[in-house]
């Protein structure tokens, strides 16, 4: 039989009996009992400490709160986001954040929110002149008089530091030339006696699709040609020999292709080890189908930096990215390396109208949606504007066009969609003839 002590240890029943009837015990048994008493005292002391702690907690709850030091929030000096001043309002029963100058219009079958174009920021006195750059910068930006406002703001971080960057700016705002600034900066770090050490570095530009990769390869090849930098596209089934890779300084590829290359541990290991700059275009695709691939590329790059202790600069470019702070942390971007530019920095101001259909029945919702779409299209056509209608899938293109045509015919508005310029008519007729010839050949 065994008994439990206060400590939870099992005490042999023989020892318990001896301890109660005999005053003289073997030395081993005495030591055993001493150990038990020590542990019990330790538990009693812990109970006292716990009791004192509990008393202090209760006392603190009864006393008025003491002013604590304010936790300093992380600031982002290069974030230009006016949405912080947007207001919350109810639209269609849901709470939405909209700009203060937005207008809400309610109609029988739908509601719409009109957001006027934002005023552009003044920029005349902030542009960086190309002539103020060094000879390498001037060579890479040949044909340019100055950087635009966004490129001028990012210039110091992109061209004068090795910090990781995340640049979020509207489409057409000039993010490609921000990438060019980082490329030239890395080139300058590998110049000895005015000679570029081309075998000491590689640059990677990751574009989401093959067509964009080809376009970027052509652009960088043209701009970096005066510096003697070789730029090649690496997509699809393309493969380069070791001698060809040695002659290339910049590769423009897709996430899938670069993922394939970086997974290898034999033939391409030398290539991955001398990469000094990784530029990821359209990094907001982390949220899409390419997300896992891009995430793996970034994680693999960061792991390589930690293992080899060799710097690899990461530059993320994005047009639309609402959670830019989260992505910046993922890319290991410091607060001063995060740049966010809202609609005020668009090269062409954009006016936005959001329409919400009121109907709940799916069939009625489609009918109302077609009617609203037709009204908006006709309004733009009457103002001599061109119109593009986007649908959810390819199989919806023809039905949507036929629906718009049917409504226009019913309302006797077909003439609004006809071409009155003879040159336009002649051009369309020529295109139709060319397409028919191609169909016959096929």
Automatic annotation (TrEMBL):
Domain Helicase ATP-binding: from-to ranges: 156-339
Pfam family, one: DEAD
SUPFAM superfamilies in the record: P-loop containing nucleoside triphosphate hydrolases
An example Gene Ontology molecular-function term: nucleic acid binding
Biased composition annotated in UniProt, kind: Basic and acidic residues: 53-65
Keyword Cell inner membrane: no
Keywords on record: ATP-binding, Helicase, Hydrolase, Nucleotide-binding
InterPro entries: DEAD/DEAH_box_helicase_dom, Hel308_SKI2-like, Helicase_ATP-bd, P-loop_NTPase
Region annotation Disordered: where it falls in the sequence: 45-65
Protein name as catalogued: Helicase ATP-binding domain-containing protein
Species name: Artemia franciscana
């Amino acid at each position: 039989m065994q008994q439990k002590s206060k400590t939870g240890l099992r005490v042999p029943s023989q020892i318990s009996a001896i301890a109660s009837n005999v005053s003289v015990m073997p030395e081993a048994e005495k030591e055993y009992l001493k150990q038990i008493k020590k542990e019990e005292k330790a538990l009693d002391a812990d109970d006292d400490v716990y009791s004192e702690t509990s008393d202090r907690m209760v006392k603190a709850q009864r006393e008025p709160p003491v002013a604590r030091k304010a936790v300093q929030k992380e600031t982002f000096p290069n974030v230009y986001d006016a949405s912080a001043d947007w207001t919350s309002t109810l639209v269609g029963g849901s709470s939405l954040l909209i700009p203060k100058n937005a207008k809400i219009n309610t109609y029988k079958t739908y509601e719409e929110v009109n957001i006027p174009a934002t005023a552009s920021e003044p920029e005349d006195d902030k542009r960086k002149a190309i002539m103020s750059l060094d000879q390498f910068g001037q060579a890479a930006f040949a044909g340019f008089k100055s950087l635009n406002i966004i490129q001028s703001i990012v210039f110091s971080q992109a061209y004068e530091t090795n910090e990781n960057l995340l640049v979020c700016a509207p489409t057409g705002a000039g993010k490609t030339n921000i990438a060019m600034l980082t490329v030239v900066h890395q080139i300058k770090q590998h110049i000895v006696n005015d000679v570029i050490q081309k075998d000491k570095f590689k640059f990677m530009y990751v574009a989401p699709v093959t067509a964009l990769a080809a376009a970027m390869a052509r652009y960088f090849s043209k701009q970096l040609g005066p510096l003697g930098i070789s730029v090649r596209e690496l997509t699809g089934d393309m493969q380069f020999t070791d001698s060809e890779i040695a002659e290339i300084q910049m590769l423009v590829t897709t996430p899938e292709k670069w993922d394939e290359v970086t997974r290898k541990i034999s033939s391409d290991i030398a290539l991955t080890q001398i990469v000094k700059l990784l530029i990821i275009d359209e990094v907001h695709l982390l949220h899409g189908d390419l997300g896992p691939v891009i995430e793996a590329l970034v994680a693999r790059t960061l792991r390589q930096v930690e293992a080899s202790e060799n710097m690899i600069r990461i530059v993320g470019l994005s047009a639309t990215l609402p959670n830019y702070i989260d992505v910046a942390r993922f890319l290991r971007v410091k607060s001063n390396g995060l740049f966010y530019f809202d609609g005020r920095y668009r090269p062409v101001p954009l006016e936005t109208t959001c329409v919400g259909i009121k109907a709940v029945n799916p069939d009625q919702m489609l009918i109302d949606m077609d009617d609203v779409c037709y009204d908006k299209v006709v309004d733009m056509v009457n103002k001599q504007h061109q119109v593009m209608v986007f649908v959810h899938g390819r199989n919806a293109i023809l039905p949507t066009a036929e629906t718009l045509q049917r409504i226009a015919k019913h309302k006797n508005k077909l003439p609004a969609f006809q071409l009155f310029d003879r040159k336009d008519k002649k051009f369309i007729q020529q295109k139709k003839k060319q397409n028919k010839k191609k169909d016959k050949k096929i």
